[in-house]
Amino acid sequence: MAITKNIVDMMGGTIKVQSEVGKGTEFIVTLEFKLQEEHKEIEIIDHLEGVHALVVDDDMNSCQSISHMLRELGLKSEWTMYGKEAVVRAKEAEQMKEPYQIYLIDWLIPDMNGIETTRRIRKIVGKEALIILLSAYDWGEIEVEAREAGVTDFISKPVFPSDLRRVLLKLFGIEENRLQEEEKIDFSGKRILLVEDNLMNREIATEYLQDFGFLVENVENGKEACDTLENSKPGYFDIVLMDIQMPVMNGFEATKRIRKFKNKEIANIPILAMTANAFEEDKKAAKEAGMNGHLAKPIDIPKLIETLKEILK
Question: What is the CATH number of the domain that holds 274?
Fold first, then answer.
């Protein structure tokens, strides 16, 4: 409740408690939001119209909500609350020649967790289907195991229509292709220092950045980033993508040290924070450390590219 109270205060709202013995307790949260000026129709994704999807989550409300979002985007969606049932339904769908092309599976399902469910479904469907793991927690510690089991991508819970749409567009190659073809974005010759302790995250980010022409060099922690920059020639690197939570030296400490370098050209290099924490205090901490921007993980590639365009213009 203390965390809830802090969040409500940060958003300028109020929280009240009404309690009565024998009846229970009611918490009332009041927040002010701006009204949307005009209703925005949800646009069906032509490439995904009629695509067969299965949602697997032990929470019925989540199943119904996500299935509704998928249908609004043009997909055919079904759901189940059990991992074992999802495996059976995957097998039946294959036998009936009506396979699911997309699976959205919650990580923590009581009868069989999302990774094991994914592993068993992969044995049935092979590599063809897309499997998205849903999680309300940071998946950094399970990402390698999940990828090895056959997970294609991740979405944070609660799932919002914009997140679902973004990931589906990315997985079907629609968003990135549109971005590259329409805007002809090309960062050829620009060199990035990517500071990230997670090997899988480094590999994924490097691949995306190279697709847009960047030359990418990697280090695993803040100390290595400082040493690499200090020993580089001025202008060798154009920007730094800095993770925050790292061993040896975190991103905030590394940025503060870089800003104190004697060579002012290197000291003033743009530094963009990447972190799983997206609260206002985290953005404030990044700014106070001397960073030029803040991106929440998992990284939204179109947003990353737009931010890089703005910083490197």
Answer: 3.40.50.2300
Q: How far apart are CA 237 and CA 150, in angstroms?
A: 35
Q: What is the pLDDT of residue 177?
A: 47
Angle made by CA atoms 202, 174, 240, in degrees to the nearest 5: 30
Q: Residue 206 sits in which domain range?
A: 183-311
249 within a domain of the structure (yes/no): yes
CA 265, 247, 256: angle at the middle one, nearest 5?
Answer: 30
Coil vs helix vs strand at 103: strand
Q: What phi and psi values does residue 59 have, to the nearest 5 degrees? A: -100, 120
Which single residue is written with the structure tokens 């703005």? 310
Please tell me the distance from the alpha carbon of residue 65 to that of residue 13, in angstroms, as a whole number. Answer: 26
Model pLDDT, residue 182 = 43
Q: Is the bond leading into 110 cis (omega within 30 degrees of zero)?
A: no
User: Which band of pLDDT confidence, cut at 50, 70 and 90, is reported for residue 13?
Assistant: confident
Q: 222 in a domain, yes or no?
A: yes
Residue 41: inside a domain: no
CA–CA distance, 233 with 94 (Å, rounded to integer): 58
User: Looking at the structure, do residues 58 and 148 belong to the same domain, yes or no?
Assistant: yes
3-state secondary structure of 74: coil
What is the overall mean pLDDT for the chain? 87
- Is residue 32 helix, strand or coil? coil
The rounded radius of gyration (Å) of the Cα atoms in the chain is 22
Task: Give me 37's structure tokens.
Answer: 């000026």
Same-domain check for residues 274 and 165: no
Pair (135, 187) in one structural domain: no
Quote the number of domains for the chain. Answer: 3
Which of 77-81, 84-88, 176-180, 193-197 is predicted with the least confidence, judged by mean pLDDT?
176-180
Supply the pLDDT for residue 184.
58
pLDDT of residue 181: 45
Is 241 a domain residue? yes
Burial 14-34 (b: 16+ CB within 10 A, else e): eeeeeeeeeeeeeeeeeeeee
Cα angle 109-165-306, degrees, rounded to a multiple of 5: 120
